[in-house]
Write a structure and sequence with these properties.
Elements lengths: L26 E4 L2 H8 L8 E8 L18 E9 L4 E9 L4 H18 L8
Parallel strand pairs: 1-4
Antiparallel strand pairs: 2-3, 3-4
Length: 126
């Protein structure tokens, strides 16, 4: 299986950016991944279950916005949460650059492992 960068992954279906059943805003925005980590880096996985993420680097015309500088924040990372205790669906939009990828993977990996735990006894590539 070919390894892709997070910004190269195109998930097969979109996740709505909004909650049909909520009157108030369900998104939070962060100017950097470190700002996001300051607030959400140690969030409880049960209360803030990450069920999906999308890294986008395209403009409205779907052309890449990458200018060759891995430190330029041309991307948006969308992290989708289910707050299981309350049944809330919320998401965060984070300004990211390609240099953030190792930190983003380190953040997402425990959630991927936790999802595998939640889906036991089914196995995924084991």
């Amino acid at each position: 299986m070919e390894t892709k960068h997070l910004w190269e992954v195109k998930h097969p279906y979109y996740c709505n950016q909004g909650n049909y059943h909520a009157r108030e805003s369900v998104e939070t925005e962060y100017r950097s991944f470190s700002d996001f980590m300051d607030e959400m880096g140690d969030a409880d996985k049960d209360y803030n279950l990450v069920f999906r993420w999308d890294w986008k680097e395209e403009n409205d015309g779907l052309e890449s916005t990458f200018n060759g500088d891995v430190n330029y924040r041309n991307g948006k990372l969308f992290v989708f949460f289910m707050q299981q205790r309350r049944g809330n669906y919320v998401y965060s939009v984070i300004d990211v650059c390609r240099a953030d990828e190792p930190a983003v993977i380190a953040y997402l990996q425990p959630y991927a492992e936790y999802m595998r735990e939640l889906w036991q006894p089914l196995t995924f590539g084991a």
